[in-house]
Amino acid sequence: MSHNTFGHLFRVTTFGESHGVALGCVVDGCPPLIPLTAEDIQADLDRRKPGTSRFTTQRREPDEVKILSGVMTNDEGVQVTTGTPIALVIENTDQRSKDYSDIKDKFRPGHADFTYEAKYGIRDYRGGGRASARETAARVAAGAIARKVVPGLTVRGALVQMGPHAIDRDKWDWDEIGNNPFFCPDAEKAKFFETYLDGIRKSGSSIGAVLEVVAEGVPAGLGAPIYAKLDAEIAAALMGINAVKGVEIGTGFAAAALTGEENADELRMGNDGKPLFLSNHAGGILGGISTGQPVVARFAVKPTSSILTPRLTIDKKGGETDILTKGRHDPCVGIRAVPVGEAMVACVIADHYLRHRGQNG
Does pTM top 0.90 for this prediction? Predict the structure, then answer.
């Protein structure tokens, strides 16, 4: 199986399966002398790990990361990167493979079961193997390192819509995200989501979500105008997350309803002598190159395909049957996708930062 690596100078290769012994990643290209400890990475993993509330899968994984290589303690007693590959491992401790024994010969609608077997002639029915969202823990670990590569970079994400219910953007409060289990910046809507998702969860069904990632402190000039557009590579990174079915940058699809006058981000000179944009419909990227404004991306996550409602399907022998998926599953997988989206955006920006530095000094 190829295609387990992404990035150019900041390269990440992930490994492992949902029900294997462990999963992890190797980060290659991280510059030396960056302070890095397991605790730095663990903080982001704790935000993604399962079992943190009744609104996520009840699989209990501590997701404790171990750094196997790529760091050492300097003369000042600080653990720093060495510039060599950083290997990270996260053990699986709460697999329940028996939950999947009844469906090992059936294809789950909405899952990668059929396509996985069509490509490889074999599939890991125990949670989806490499197609499982469990793999994203390794991406979050890599993203924690990526955040340290770009000086002054801040990457934050939020859930802005669940099902058809969107937040009130006038009530956006970043500080509120840590106060509820949904990464929701609107306290009032977060309360609504509790009741709404409880109903979805108790019915054995699932629902989708829209998430937004904002990267601040991105220097102007990252990206390239043709085949290495910053927005194109962010879109590809976000589309590579499990269950993501759509991505938009800045105003995105809504820009199609605007006039040229409304959509253009006008400029003036700021008091600091630098260009000042009067709006940010472009999402911080023009012509594939960062403007210095916040980079804004949104992505849509489909409903979790593992549900208790019987669905029509076929088995490996071509027989028609139906299926319901038992086990521990997220009623809204979009919730835990917030830190994953942050990590992917951070990795792309770190990669472009190093590429820009290598070309332009």
Answer: yes
289/276 Cα distance (integer angstroms): 16
Q: What is the pLDDT of residue 22?
A: 92
Closest to 87 (Cα-Cα) out of 130, 133, 23: 23
- The one-letter amino acid at 185: P
Following DSSP, what letter does each residue of 17-72 receive, concatenated? -TTSSEEEEEEE-PPSS-B--HHHHHHHHHHH-S-SSTTS--------EEE-SSEE
pLDDT tens, position by position, 34-71 = 999 999 999 999 998 765 666 666 556 678 999 999 99
What's the pLDDT tens digit per position in 310-340? 889 999 889 999 988 776 578 899 999 999 9
Q: What are 81's two structure tokens?
A: 């990167």
Taking CA atoms, 93 is separated from 96, 97, 247, 318, in Å, by: 10, 12, 33, 35
Q: Which two tokens stand for residue 326?
A: 């038992």
Task: Give 202's contacts (C-beta < 8 A, 6+ positions apart).
Answer: none
CA dihedral sign, ordered 251, 254, 255, 260: negative
Could you give the 3-state DSSP secondary structure of residue 219? coil
Q: Is 128 left (phi over 0), alpha (psi -120 to 50) or beta?
A: left
CA distance 298 to 288: 17
If we measure between CA atoms, which residue out of 42, 2, 8 comes closest to residue 28?
Answer: 8
- 8-state DSSP, 32: S
Q: How many helices (H) and strands (E) does the chain have?
A: 7, 18
